[in-house]
Amino acid sequence: MSDDPMRRLQRVYAAIGEAIDTDAFEFRPVTRRDGDQYATSVRFDEASEEEMQNTIYSAVHNVANLRDHLKKWARQHGKDSGVIDKAVDASPELKMVVDLSNRDKHGGPPRDGGLSGLSPNLVRFRRGMTSVQPGQTVTTFTIFFGEAPNVAFGEGAAVMTSADVVDLSGNVVGDAIALLNVAVGQWEQVLRECGLAPEEQPG
Q1: pLDDT tens across 42-55, in order?
Q2: Nearest alpha carbon to residue 136 among 44, 30, 18
Q3: Domain edges within the chain
Q4: What distance lies between CA 148 and its chain's CA centroid?
């Protein structure tokens, strides 16, 4: 297993990528006759709760574990490992990702609220086609036509697995994938400060 931070970052990209399926064409529309109309339905939420949880928590752990891997790499290469801790201390997003990872590993919230002080948790796992508003998905849709339709998905359509991030009181504080993407961007900045240059990822 490589300790190269760039290889680790590629694993992070891959883990988050598992939650975002850009090949919407694999989701087959089902068309039925309804009187003098045709109804075409497409479902995107057929993954089980356990499958969705595994997808999201795999990404959470990959992002959170970068902290320890980067600190070890920095020490071995004469870099200031304190940069990594400072980055986490300055980032509400990184703190929440580390807290989510620890909660899953230890089976419950920390007594002190964790690094973020929020005791964050993931709830309402979902899988659906992404809409215009970040964090919102469509799990199924039905369109009625006067004749049997040809269904096509537009460029950029993606089916995403995500969840709500909530605090100890159950208040929604974010979306899991949005949170992870921000956290990864912050890790990329840390790598640049360490003299490494992450490759730009496609949007």
Answers
A1: 565 667 899 999 99
A2: 44
A3: 5-193
A4: 36
